[in-house]
Write a structure and sequence with these properties.
Elements: E1 7-9, E2 16-18, E3 20-23, H1 39-51, E4 56-58, H2 67-76, E5 85-90, H3 108-122, E6 127-132, H4 141-153, E7 157-163, H5 167-179, E8 187-191, H6 203-210, E9 213-217, H7 240-247, H8 257-261, H9 264-280, H10 284-293, E10 301-304, H11 308-315, H12 325-335, H13 343-349
Parallel strand pairs: 3-4, 3-10, 4-5, 5-6, 6-7, 7-8, 8-9
Antiparallel strand pairs: 1-2
Helix pairs in contact: 1-11, 2-3, 3-4, 9-10, 9-12
Length: 360
């Protein structure tokens, strides 16, 4: 399968993953969102992903209130478990009993309950990667670090990672782990795309210097970067963006299309993406994913698929072609965010002080 999928080490670890990770938030019913997959459709997508050489599955206990993990579990028990890298997350409340006030956050109590629930749903004895889903201001990070490290020592978890944290928070995790003699965290999962580059202000620097692999989510911004949306038309029916715009339930992976229509920068980015896609005989979506794959801090890009066709198209970004240096530079320039204080001042003062190799 090496000709279909490229494999990379996840951060500074010895764990190899396919550079396209299958995100499974589309598995299971989820609050009326369109295009969610039932168990049969989920298994069909998993089957094809594996046939194409994919080995990296990302889920979370909160996805479809546990259904995503359950669908993966019923598929996984029919596979050779050791061939797949399974990642899940902890932070949110999946209990139907809302009065259970301790089933939230990153306390030792919640973590210990959540890992057992996830393992049961996934029908496995261990998780390859366990990630905090979001920072928790209410819990001392030392408590979280210690609890997660105990899961590694108990064999329930192989590696640890973070998702949706700030730069100082990730650096604190790194430094405290060293100080406390705990296992190193190997990955950072964050929204990252040609129209969402905020992590480049600090988080990519932390990851690059500390050997943490970035796993971008929403590389297509909910479909906005597929080239299927037209500025002068309504969002395509059945899309998440159409649903979120109509209901007002917008979030990072499903932005308000009426606002997006007014953003000249987004459409300028899409114009360049279309030009690059035509030059390579690829789709606009493949260009969006490939741009991320050619960033040195990215280990694997998370894709979501509601259909086999979407899966096939996204997997086409994995290997066999590259965006040229000139095209990468053009994409970088058109999508560049305006610098603001203190980053503009710091970057200006360090323009001629950057080492090509941090070890020099």
């Amino acid at each position: 399968m090496a000709d279909k999928t490229e494999y990379r080490f996840l951060g500074g670890s010895g764990l190899k993953v396919s550079n396209i990770c299958l995100g499974t938030m589309t598995f299971g019913e989820m609050g009326g969102w369109p295009g969610q997959c039932d168990e049969a459709a989920s298994h069909a997508i998993l089957d094809r992903y594996a046939e194409l050489g994919g080995n990296f599955l990302d889920t979370a206990d909160i996805y479809a209130m546990g259904k995503s993990e359950e669908y993966i579990g019923s598929w996984l028990e029919k596979q050779q478990r050791e061939k797949f890298i399974v990642a899940s997350k902890v932070r949110f409340n999946t209990s139907r009993w809302t009065q259970d006030i301790n089933r939230w956050g990153l306390s030792r109590h919640h973590i210990m309950h959540s890992i057992d629930d996830s393992l049961r749903r996934l029908r496995t004895d261990y998780l390859d990667l366990y990630q905090i889903h979001l920072w928790d201001e209410a819990v001392p990070i030392e408590e979280t670090l210690s609890a997660l490290n105990d899961l590694v020592r108990a064999g329930k978890v192989r590696y640890l990672g973070a998702s949706n944290v700030k730069g100082w928070q990730l650096q604190k995790i790194v430094d405290l782990s060293k100080y406390m003699g705990l296992n190193k965290w190997i990955s950072f999962q964050a929204e990252y795309s040609l129209v969402c580059r905020g992590i480049e202000w600090e988080l990519t620097d932390v990851c690059r210097r500390e050997g943490i692999g970035i796993i971008p989510w929403s590389p297509l911004k909910g479909g906005l970067l597929t080239g299927k949306f037209k500025r002068e038309a309504a969002a395509p029916e059945g899309s998440r963006i159409a649903h979120s715009t109509k209901t007002g339930h917008t979030f990072e992976a499903a932005p308000d299309f009426e606002k997006a229509k007014k953003d000249d920068k987004t459409w300028n980015v899409l114009d360049v993406m279309k030009k690059v896609a035509e030059a390579h005989g690829k789709t606009v979506a493949q260009v969006a994913i490939r741009w991320l794959l050619q960033k040195d801090v990215v280990s694997s890009v998370i894709i979501g698929a509601k259909t086999l066709q979407q899966l096939e198209d996204n997997m086409g970004a994995s290997t066999g072609w590259e965006i040229t240096e000139e095209q990468m530079a053009e994409l970088d320039t058109v999508s560049q965010m305006d610098a603001f204080y203190p980053y503009n001042m710091i970057n200006f003062a360090n323009n001629d002080r950057v080492r090509k190799n941090m070890c020099q």
